[in-house]
Amino acid sequence: MKKFNFSCTPKLYFGEGAFDKVKNIIKDYGDKILVITGGTSFEKSFYHKRLLSDLEKNNIIYYLEKVKNEPSPLIIDEISEKYRKENISVVISVGGGSVMDAGKAVSAMLTKNDSVKEYLEGIGKKKHDGDKVPFIAVPTTSGTGSEATKNAVISEVGDRGFKKSLRHDNFVPDCAVVDPRLTASCPKMVTAASGMDAFSQLIEAYLSTDASPMTDALALSGLEHIKDGLIEAYKNKENLDARGKVAYASYLSGVVLANAGLGTVHGFASPIGGYFDIPHGVVCGTLIGELIRINIKNLSSDPNKDGIYLEKYANVGRIFSGKNNLERKAACEALVDEVNRLIEVMEIPRLGDYGIKEEDLDKIIEKTGNKNNPVELKKEELREMLLNRL
Questions:
Q1: Are residues 221 and 234 in the same domain?
Q2: Which stretches of 4-129 are DSSP H helices?
Q3: For residues 351 and 386, is the Cβ–Cβ distance under 8 A?
Q4: Listed residues 183, 204, 233: the one ending a domain
Q5: Can you give the residue ranges of the Fe-containing alcohol dehydrogenase-like C-terminal domain (predicted)?
Q6: Are residues 273 and 226 in the same domain?
Q7: Residue 50 is part of a domain; what is its CATH number?
Q8: 122-155: per-residue pLDDT in tens?
């Protein structure tokens, strides 16, 4: 049996009503907290008022910060500097993946005196020792799985832009509170793009060359729940059963990506997100069908390739088609069709909708990683994928 390592996961509170436990969870950490939220949707909600009321009733001192976009080094540095001397007991993020990444990074940088940029993979020269302020993650979208991962994605957009991770095993949230009620206010496109991000993470981790029997089992469970819940959650935002299934899948996507890694779609997401102002979930959602198609084509045409990867794609095809008896070739074809149907039904945008042009492709491809993908893709194949989704 294959040897593998498995990182820790957060203490998890899952299900409708889980958010009601936050006030008691916070008390276990101390009486001075930093609350980081996103835009205005949570701020306008009943849950925001409820949280602040509960904190006040329990004599907990709290500070509020907003992160409206994907966190940059400047944002993280400013928040960290502002609260470094306040003896914060715990940081809690309530929001989407960017908000959770921001909170995760701030919790790590409150213990340091320099810029987060110094510790980013591929950018800085320092290695973080993992010392941090406790961190609680409360997702209001279902997609990134940041509530279960050990990295925070930090980015700068522009000609010299980047999207890099602050990473340490200790950065896994101490606690994750996943309540599907909090996702009901998501706009349809956020539900769609976030859900496709979760799907991409699950299938890339399942097909990863670093996958293990443990991550395989979790990824398949997540994929089954995406299949059962995503379209219904997209069509009917009030369906909490469907939203719960997608929230569960999103959490598992974070667990498996932290332990098996990801593939070429997320290799694309880093440079595309650095160069262009485009939602991460849109990049993943618009490209994942192309990656599946081209991987299956390569695996099918080379008799020397390990058949286990084709069989894995076939397993997912059987799940999404609902036809358990399909032969491998038919199941792989069904998977491509079903993923393209998801993209079409949920109207996932194309790259060109965000200003990406054919002349931009070379610089994207130059910085695209192919780590953990079951196929070593050539530059012309990467270009084909991008061109087909311009």
A1: yes
A2: 22-27, 46-57, 73-83, 97-109
A3: yes
A4: 183
A5: 191-386
A6: yes
A7: 3.40.50.1970
A8: 999 999 999 999 999 999 999 999 999 999 999 9
179 & 214 share domain: no
- Phi and psi at 367, nearest 5°, equal -110, 15
Look up the CATH number of the domain holding residue 224: 1.20.1090.10
**Given the DSSP bridges, would you call strands 61-66 and 162-167 parallel, antiparallel or unpaired?**
unpaired
Q: Are 188 and 141 contacting, i.e. CB atoms less than 8 angstroms apart?
A: no
Q: Which amino acid is at 345?
A: V
Which segments of the chain have a pLDDT < 70? 303-304, 306
Domain range spanning residue 77?
11-183
Given this model, what pLDDT does residue 310 score? 96
Q: Under a CB-based contact definition with an 8 Å cutoff, are residues 227 and 320 in contact?
A: yes
Where does a domain end: 152, 183, 214?
A: 183
pLDDT of res. 8:
86
> Beta strands of the chain (E only): which ranges?
11-14, 32-37, 61-66, 90-95, 135-139, 151-156, 162-167, 175-178
Within this chain, do residues 178 and 218 fall inside the same structural domain, yes or no? no
- For Cα atoms 357, 359, 365, give the angle at the middle one, nearest 5 degrees: 95
Q: In whole angstroms, give the CA distance from residue 168 to residue 170.
A: 5
pLDDT of residue 42: 79
The DSSP-derived string for 121-176 is TTT-S---------EEEEESSSSS-GGG-SEEEEEE-STT-EEEEEE-GGGS-SEE
Q: Is residue 129 part of a domain?
A: yes
> Are 298 and 305 spatial neighbours (Cβ–Cβ below 8 Å)?
yes
Q: Strand, coil or helix: what is 93?
A: strand
Pairing of strands 162-167, 151-156: antiparallel
Cα(285)–Cα(251) distance, rounded to whole angstroms?
A: 17
pLDDT tens-digit series, residues 293-303: 999 999 998 76
CA distance 235 to 244: 14
Q: Give yes or no for a contact between 138 and 93, defined as CB atoms under 8 angstroms apart.
A: yes
CA distance 76 to 208: 31
Q: Is the dihedral of CA 139, 142, 146, 147 positive or negative?
A: positive
